[in-house]
């Protein structure tokens, strides 16, 4: 009877404790303590029991910040004052525990409500990958019922094909936080983060997995990518149109070498092979590339043209192959598709291919061999359907020998080359080209009468070597149409630089040893040519004589001789 927390006391009718097993020295429930003074609540309960009225004999009493459970049994003896036997149990700790339990239960209910109201999915697994709980969002995303999943191992769920892979298994294996992309059976795309929970001994006790459905975000981001790509393409096309307002005109080919190149291009337009177009600057390589694309079965898809030399070296790779988000500091947050991706199903024309840095040459070769592209900073590759056309005015053989162009790429590109001859080697193309561009510019400038060219002016242009090739001819035609006073272009309408070079070329051809001709004949021809040129340049015989360092009568005599002859 002497052990706490149970205390048994005997109380007389006056409320005094007459017997007690309370621990001696403690200030509660000791013999002699008068209940009405020390414990009024307890006395009230005891008094009710002693009054003989039917009352529940158990009660809870609070005293000095403690909680007691009290059972009172009255003892009625005839001839004696009644006594009460009182059993008191200290419930303070139990009470606190109950309070804690309630708080814990409230917290747990609150947590359940939060977890279940979350739009993000949540899985909790044990250290062996057994599912302990999943929330309502996860049930929806994975189209499962918690009851069918709880207690199952993640390995089984992967095996059954419910999910394609498990982040829980990864977390248990690698013992750290993991992120993965997962595809559900219904085709949804989820992003999962698995976090391990460790005990004090460093052992994994739980894996908590949060999952978010990114199917919509993914498709929106793809749509955004596509929109951006369309925008880029349009920018590109507008720039192209501005740059080459003449490229919409038909391609002129008269000389056999050019006709051969065009026929070759038309033939190649029917197959998917990579084509390398070689030729000096301005010979029409871009036009040939366009011709191939326009006659191919992908003509309704875009042809994207990139001048490899115009892109800064450090940007070439990302421009061509694109980059993944966060690939480098300053990278676009969403990542960016490269030109190869933008040209998907169409044609990519890589002009000035020789300018491609060696590092990008390797990547291009890999693309040509696999048709797959991996964005810079990316880990997965994408299969593409892109036809590649390349062009250069550089001597690739020489560059390869100097180690500036990769041999493997050279042979990969050089399978079918098209050579476009310089304009000076296909003079037959010059008259139709001039006529074509005269028509083009008179129409463009709104000039009513057609522009023609005099025989002499045409002769000069036929002698001119056109170092800038057709591009130079196009510019010259525009200039002539704009500047000419009459509708016929005469020698005087030609720029001095063209006249001088053409004359020089003619002279070079003329002056020189010619088989079966006498020295006198050759000198006479040279003299006649010089006089003709001087006449064109100076007009009057006096000015010609001054320029040639002879007197005017010599000029007059010689002019007469050559006119008569
Ligand atoms: N055969 C042709 N018929 C009509 N126009 C032509 C022809 N060849 C070239 N041109 C015109 O000449 C200009 C230059 O052509 P293009 O840009 O295709 O040359 P390129 O060889 O690609 O030059 P670059 O090496 O500098 O890129 C364009 O305006 C083009 O329309």
CATH top level of the largest domain?
Alpha Beta
Proportion of residues in β-strands = 15-25%
CATH domain fold name of the largest domain: Rossmann fold
Number of domains as seen in the coordinates: 5
Q: Say how many strands there are.
A: 19
Specify the overall morphology: rod-shaped
Instruction: State the end-to-end CA separation.
Output: 158 Å
The CATH superfamily of the largest domain appears as: P-loop containing nucleotide triphosphate hydrolases
Mean pLDDT: 86
- CATH architecture level-2 label of the largest domain: 3-Layer(aba) Sandwich
Bound molecules: adenosine-5'-triphosphate
Structural classification = alpha/beta
> What's the total helix number?
22
Stretches where pLDDT is under 50 for at least 5 consecutive residues are 242-249
Furnish the topology, listing elements before pairings.
Elements lengths: L5 E6 L5 E4 L14 H4 L1 H11 L7 E6 L2 E10 L7 E8 L1 H26 L3 E6 L4 E4 L1 H7 L3 H4 L4 H6 L7 H8 L3 E6 L5 E10 L5 E10 L1 H29 L12 H13 L6 E5 L5 H10 L8 E5 L8 H6 L17 H4 L4 E5 L6 H13 L1 E3 L6 E3 L3 E6 L3 H6 L5 H7 L3 E4 L9 H16 L6 E2 L1 H9 L5 H15 L4 E2 L6 H15 L8 H20 L2 H8 L3 H13 L1
Parallel strand pairs: 11-16, 11-17, 12-13, 13-16, 18-19
Antiparallel strand pairs: 1-2, 1-5, 3-4, 4-5, 6-7, 6-10, 8-9, 9-10, 14-15
The structure holds adenosine-5'-triphosphate (ATP).
């Amino acid at each position: 009877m002497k052990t706490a927390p149970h205390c048994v006391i005997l109380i007389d009718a006056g409320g005094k404790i007459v017997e007690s097993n309370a621990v001696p020295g403690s200030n509660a429930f000791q013999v002699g303590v008068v209940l009405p003074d020390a414990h009024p609540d307890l006395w009230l309960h005891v008094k009710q029991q002693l009054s003989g009225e039917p009352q529940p004999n158990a009660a809870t009493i609070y005293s000095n910040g403690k909680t007691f459970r009290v059972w009172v049994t009255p003892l009625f003896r005839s001839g004696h004052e009644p006594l009460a036997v009182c059993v008191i149990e200290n419930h303070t700790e139990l009470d606190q525990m109950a309070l804690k339990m309630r708080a814990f239960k409230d917290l747990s209910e609150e947590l359940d409500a939060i977890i279940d109201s979350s739009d993000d999915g949540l899985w909790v697994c044990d250290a062996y990958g057994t599912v302990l709980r999943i929330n309502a969002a996860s049930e929806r995303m994975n189209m499962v019922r918690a009851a069918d999943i709880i207690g199952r191992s993640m390995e089984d769920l992967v095996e059954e094909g419910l999910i394609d892979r498990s982040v829980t298994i990864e977390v248990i294996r690698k013992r750290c936080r993991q992120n993965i992309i997962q595809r559900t059976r219904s085709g949804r795309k989820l992003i999962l983060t698995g976090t391990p929970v460790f005990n004090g001994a460093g052992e994994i006790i739980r894996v908590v997995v949060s999952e978010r459905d990114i199917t919509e975000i993914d498709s929106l981001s793809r749509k955004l990518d596509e929109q951006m790509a369309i925008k880029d393409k349009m920018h590109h096309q507008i720039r192209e149109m501005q740059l080459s307002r003449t490229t919409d005109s038909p391609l002129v080919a008269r000389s056999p070498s050019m006709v051969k190149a065009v026929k070759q291009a038309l033939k190649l337009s029917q197959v998917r092979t990579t084509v390398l177009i070689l030729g000096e600057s301005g010979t029409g390589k871009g036009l040939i590339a366009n011709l191939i694309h326009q006659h191919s079965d992908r003509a309704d898809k875009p042809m994207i043209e990139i001048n490899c030399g115009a892109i800064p070296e450090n940007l070439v790779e990302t421009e061509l192959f694109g980059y993944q988000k966060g690939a480098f500091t300053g990278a676009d947050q969403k990542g960016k598709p490269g030109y190869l991706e933008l040209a998907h199903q169409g044609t990519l024309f890589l002009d000035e291919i020789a300018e491609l840095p060696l590092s990008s040459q390797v990547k291009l070769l890999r693309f040509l061999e696999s048709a797959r592209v991996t964005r810079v900073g990316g880990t997965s590759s994408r299969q593409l359907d892109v036809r590649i056309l390349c062009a250069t005015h550089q001597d690739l053989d020489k560059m390869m020998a100097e180690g500036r162009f990769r041999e493997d790429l050279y042979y990969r590109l050089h399978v079918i080359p098209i050579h476009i001859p310089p304009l000076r080697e296909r003079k037959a193309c010059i008259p139709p080209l001039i006529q074509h561009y005269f028509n083009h510019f008179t129409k463009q400038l709104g000039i009513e009468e057609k522009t023609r060219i005099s025989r002499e002016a045409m002769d000069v242009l036929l002698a001119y070597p056109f170092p800038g090739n057709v591009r130079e001819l196009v510019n010259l035609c525009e200039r002539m149409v704009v500047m000419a006073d009459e509708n016929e272009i005469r020698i005087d309408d030609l720029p001095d630089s063209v006249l001088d070079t053409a004359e020089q070329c003619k002279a070079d051809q003329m002056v020189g040893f010619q088989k079966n001709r006498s020295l006198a004949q050759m000198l006479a021809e040279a003299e006649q040519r010089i006089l003709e040129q001087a006449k064109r340049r100076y007009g009057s015989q006096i000015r010609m004589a001054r320029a040639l360092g002879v007197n005017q009568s010599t000029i007059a005599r010689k002019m007469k001789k050559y006119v008569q002859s």
